[in-house]
Amino acid sequence: MKPAPVAPDEETPVTAELLRDMPLPQPDGDGDKETRGRVLVIAGSVPVPGGALLAGIGALRAGAGKLQIATAASIAPHLGLALPEALVAALPETAEGGIAAESGAALAERASRCDTVLVGPGMMDEAAVAKLTAHLLTRLDPAGDPALSLAGGGPRFVLDAAALAGLGRDPGPVQRHAGRVVITPHAGEMAGLLGCSREQVEADPLATARRVAAHLKAVVALKGSCTRIVTPEGRAWAYRGGTVGLATSGSGDTLAGIVAGLLARGASPEQAAVWGVYLHGEAGNRLSRRIGPLGFLARELLAEIPAAMAALAEGAESD
Questions:
Q1: For the chain, does the N or the C end have fewer beta carbons within 10 angstroms?
Q2: How confident is the model at residue 3 (pLDDT cuts 50, 70, 90)?
């Protein structure tokens, strides 16, 4: 059944009550880590190794069962020590310390065995990242092997930061995974994707997000003081409950990881994006009340995620 038409200016507020009406998939009490999904985070570079770390922890804090991180060879051992819960794969790197584009074939084989693939946090060489992202999206079959995925089909994708750079020039690879991709740009990254100014994006963020979602056939989470989540069909949600403290280095990496973890658990792309944005914002609110509105760190957001999820579940049980 097709969804009802959506008014051009209609957006649903993201609230705790809304999320209780769209509960996340819950693992069976007898299940093991395999039943909570596998995430592959392709991220990091020598200048910014922490992006991979923040995104990886975000996926685990959101409840994913297994985590792999694929990153530049020279930082892989350090990430392995910093995040002992993950399998860390070392990849050939560019002269600038990023992941080399020729890693695509090996990454595609690894990604085919995962439920969710996150590309982009902490990656610096936009041309190499765009080539690598396009290779993965082209090589991986959207139908996948149903036996290897909780949600059925091939892996779902979260594309963030540098992984967004090539989508405007060549949307074909992401379009072939219609309905299985979430992108998480801020206004500047959206402007780069569209080849326009940041001011043009900020003049009408909802219309911009709708246009890109329909064109790419992907769920868009356009980050800002009000974050809009939009589906390819035009359904839209708006989250206005965050704090100014969320505008801090590494915050976007944590959000991308949270969304990837929720996807791996079996949430739909729009559900993962809506829940991820809310949990990220609520984590900031919790820190703001305890520490102060400014000065908390992106890595401190991550420990707040399980409690924020539990609070929603407890609220649903008491209703």
A1: N
A2: very low
SS (H, E, C) 203-262: HCHHHHHHHHHHHHCCEEEEECCCEEEECCCCCEEEECCCCHHHCCCCHHHHHHHHHHHH
Beta bridge partners of 220: 183, 230
* pLDDT score of 260 more than 70: yes
Q: Give a three-class secondary structure readout of 25-45.
A: CCCCCCCCHHHHCEEEEECCC
Name the pLDDT band for 9 (thresholds 50, 70, 90).
low
Count of structural domains within the chain: 1
Residue 11 domain-assigned (yes or no): no
Backbone region of residue 169 per phi and psi (left: phi > 0; alpha: psi in -120 to 50; beta: other values)? alpha
Whose structure tokens read 């038409």?
A: 5
Q: Which domain holds residue 176?
A: 34-318
Tell me, yes or no, whether 84 lies in a domain. Answer: yes
